[in-house]
Design goal:
484 residues
Length: 484
């Protein structure tokens, strides 16, 4: 039997290979926007196909990078029956922030406790309904959103995320420039038993807040019951923010931390007055930092005369500050012990000992450390901060985290978007970031700078340099009158 051998020339071989080749991302996108194509089904088909993961990631990423593709994906994310379940939490949005006095806070707890219990019960039912639907065999919408976020943002997930949590987070991420999340965020964690959300490096952990319709103004009354005044009275930015969604704002705030981590914004500019004039340091450095800022040291007590006594007195001041600065210290005991020690060492009178106690307790450095060694001193009013900061050239010191203290220029608070912005340098930028993308930053001196230096598309493959500092034109173009 004679066999026929068929030979193909080079051009025929190339044509055959091209016919069997996978379509490129350009071809997939072109086909999506072709006439008569059912676009949502097409996107689902690409995502569920056995194509290489890099192809699917590029397809989704590029689709989200253009306006019509972004709107298509958002409409797919929103398309769930769960949206029809009533959001009972919206009732809290009509509440007003509780006055800062202790008497008013305790009075407000009488109606607040049953409201919170009933609201919590209703929210629990709502959550169970939503979770039951997202886990039912009739829908895989929750898992689909999770896969979409993995492909588009290249993020990993820890712990269980509900459909509502994923949906609201996805839509919040779409408020920022294309590529930002992919470049700055690695992991998303859901920790429902943690009090506060936080970001560590490139990882975001969302805490006990529920993905409901609650606004920042609706959440504020509950926060103030525990002494946390996040929104700033008299700030037009806080006045606008109280109508904005709490989950979205928190998501953008934590995303701002990751952007700051990626670009080193506050490392580069935090010391500038336009950014708050920050210093941050370990608690063991508090005395030295205060001493450097103290403009006019108070006179020593009359009983302190000799150089050795003065040296001992200065050492006692530092010792008192260090004890207040330490998380485990007891500065009040140290004030008494140091006064008694000086009295014994130099054989002073009981009257002198009392004068020493009073002088130590009223010393500006010791007084600042005593009042602000507890977390939350960023809650104080501008007038109180200004008075406390006067001996330090307008610089206010407080504990930001367990082992860390900070100081900032009180005068910069005239442009504050919130009270919480002044907890620490990182919070300063994260709050500014959230306000910008929530649309509440109009009129701020740094809005022009933000538009030019921060509000730009990221290149995920490139580490961007720290942004340039603001110029005179930025500040002049958005002069702040900070009226409500």
């Amino acid at each position: 039997m004679q066999r026929e051998v068929i030979q193909m020339d080079d051009d025929d071989a190339v044509d055959a290979e091209e016919a069997d080749a996978e379509p490129t991302v350009d071809e997939l996108l072109a086909a999506l926007w072709g006439p008569g194509v059912k676009k949502k089904a097409y996107v689902l088909g690409v995502m569920q196909s056995n194509r290489h993961d890099t192809i699917k990631k590029e397809f989704i990423s590029r689709l989200a990078g253009e306006d019509r593709g972004k709107k298509l994906l958002e409409s797919m994310v929103k398309g769930s029956v769960i949206n029809w379940i009533p959001d009972v939490s919206r009732v809290t949005n009509v509440m007003k922030p509780i006055p800062p006095s202790k008497k008013a806070q305790w009075a407000a707890m009488i109606p607040a406790v049953p409201i919170a219990l009933l609201g919590g019960f209703a929210l629990g039912i709502q959550k169970l309904l939503a979770e039951g639907w997202s886990r039912s065999p009739f829908t895989s919408h929750r898992d689909w959103i999770k896969e979409l976020m993995r492909l588009e943002f290249d993020v990993t997930f820890s712990n269980h995320w509900s459909e509502a949590e994923l949906r609201k987070t996805y839509l919040a991420f779409h408020l920022v420039p294309d590529g930002t999340v992919r470049a700055c965020v690695n992991g998303l964690e859901r920790n429902k038993f943690s009090i506060g959300s936080f970001a560590s490096g490139s990882d975001i952990s969302m805490a006990g807040l529920l993905p409901t319709g609650s606004t920042m103004g609706g959440v504020e009354p509950y926060s103030r019951l525990f002494g946390q005044k996040f929104l700033k009275t008299g700030s037009k930015y806080s006045s606008r923010m109280k109508y904005k969604n709490a989950w979205t704002m928190t998501t953008l705030h934590e995303l701002g931390h990751t952007v700051d981590n990626k670009r080193g914004v506050m490392d580069a500019h935090g010391e500038n007055s336009e950014f708050g004039g920050w210093t941050d340091f370990h608690n063991s450095q508090l005395a030295d930092e205060m001493k450097e800022s103290l403009t006019v040291p108070p006179p020593t007590p009359n009983c302190i005369q000799t150089p050795r006594q003065i040296q001992k007195w200065n050492h006692s001041i530092e010792w008192c500050i260090n004890d207040f600065a330490s998380p485990d210290g007891n500065g009040d005991n140290t004030i008494r012990e140091e006064a008694e020690d000086i009295t014994r060492t130099y054989n002073l009178t009981p009257h002198d000992s009392q004068d020493l106690k009073s002088a130590l307790a009223s010393h500006p450095m010791v007084k600042m450390a005593k009042k602000n060694f507890k977390l939350g001193a960023w809650n104080r009013s501008d007038d109180t901060m200004r008075e406390m900061a006067a001996p330090f050239g307008g610089r206010y010191f407080h504990r930001s985290y367990t082992q860390d203290w900070v100081s900032f220029e009180v005068e910069s608070r005239k442009d504050a978007v919130s009270n919480y912005q002044y907890r620490a340098p990182g919070e300063w930028f994260a709050e500014l970031y959230a306000h910008y993308y929530m649309g509440t930053l109009d009129g701020h001196p740094l809005k022009g700078w933000f538009e030019r230096e921060i509000d730009q598309n990221f290149d995920p493959e490139t580490m961007l340099a720290p942004p340039a500092p603001p110029n005179a034109e930025d500040v002049a173009a958005h002069a702040n009158d900070n009226d409500n």
